[in-house]
Amino acid sequence: MNHKISKRGINSYQLKCLGILFMTLDHIGSYLITDIGSNLFRTIGRIAAPLFLYVAVNSARHTRNKLKYALRLYAAHVLICIFTLFLTTYLEELFGEHDQFSILPVFIYMILIVWILEECSKPLFIVLAVGMLILPSVLLPLSGPFSVICHIFLPDVLSVPYSPFFVMMGICWYFAKSRQQQMFILIVFSCLALIGAQIFSRLGFWLFTGFFHASQFWMILFLPLIHLYNGQQGKPIKKFFYIYYPLHIYVLMLLGQWISI
Question: Are the C-beta atoms of residues 156 and 133 closer than 8 Å to each other?
Fold first, then answer.
């Protein structure tokens, strides 16, 4: 892989800090601001999801054990979802009614598919691995009254946040041979989101609305940050992110519910 490491530009730590800023602005626009001003917050916030996907791609490239990395993300996802379910069910008067928000299944599926493509050489092992990926899609329709719990423990690749196209973008980034190719991939997927949104709008039906939405085109604003990324790690803040990610959303839920009273 031709990914140069330089002292210039921004490292992974600085990239994550920017991601936290953009993510917070996006969620302020989602949970607190309901007038026209929310459009600006959400537009700028389109940078956050591809940024953290890009961070996960680079982490997957440098980790010694991809399965352990995916398992850590899975544990964080389950804990976040269970706590969110508790707050929005038993403390609904305080936090309001909200859907699950964890984006971590996107990263998990990206890592698992990359691992399958790199490590699985035996045909039987490939079949078993692919079967594990599609198992949630088969079981969820059969889960009945336990669908909410099943969706937490068995996230479906077809209904992950931002759609399977985000998973595909992450896989393409992982196998890209240069930073320029990664930038081109972002441009392609950004344009695909905009073109797809226009096509589905004219046809009168919607598919993968988390991705095929006109506003999702603005993830192209992440382009300069890919160019500036210098490939260095910087300070590790993964524990801080795992705490800040759900916590700031719970605070915004609480404030949003309080403002609406």
Answer: no
